[in-house]
Amino acid sequence: MAEAIQKKLKAEVEKYAQTQKDVSKSVSARQKLETQMAENNIVKEELDLLDSSNTVFKLIGPVLVKQDLDEAKATVAKRLEYINGEIQRYETLLKDYHKKSEQQREVLTSLQQDLQKAQGLTPGKV
């Protein structure tokens, strides 16, 4: 009986470890998006300071190409909207991962207690 519990415990530990890796990847991706958001907000603020008499250039590969100010503002606004959506998606994903992680932690605790009982140990004396 203890062997079956140990196998199940090992499988649950692996699931838990994978969930933690997924959480880590998602946090990293969200941080990257937040950095991009901050950069794009700075660009938006700078573009808001300009008027139609100013010239705006866009870097395309190694070349600077003249761009209409309204077009540049619209591009930055769309980029900010997209980044916001992605951040919200990652927030939802992280909430789901945390719920899943908590459930797995409860299962692990229960299995550890079952294993201790099967081995003749009382929980808390370990």
Automatic annotation (TrEMBL):
Domain of life: Eukaryota
SUPFAM superfamilies with a match to the protein in the record: Prefoldin
Keywords tagged on the record: Chaperone
Biological process terms in GO annotation: chaperone-mediated protein complex assembly; protein folding
GO cellular component, one term: cytoplasm
Family per record: Belongs to the prefoldin subunit beta family.
Quaternary structure, from the entry: Heterohexamer of two PFD-alpha type and four PFD-beta type subunits. Component of the PAQosome complex which is responsible for the biogenesis of several protein complexes and which consists of R2TP complex members RUVBL1, RUVBL2, RPAP3 and PIH1D1, URI complex members PFDN2, PFDN6, PDRG1, UXT and URI1 as well as ASDURF, POLR2E and DNAAF10/WDR92.
Protein task: Binds specifically to cytosolic chaperonin (c-CPN) and transfers target proteins to it. Binds to nascent polypeptide chain and promotes folding in an environment in which there are many competing pathways for nonnative proteins.
Protein name: Prefoldin subunit 6
Gene source species: Poecilia mexicana
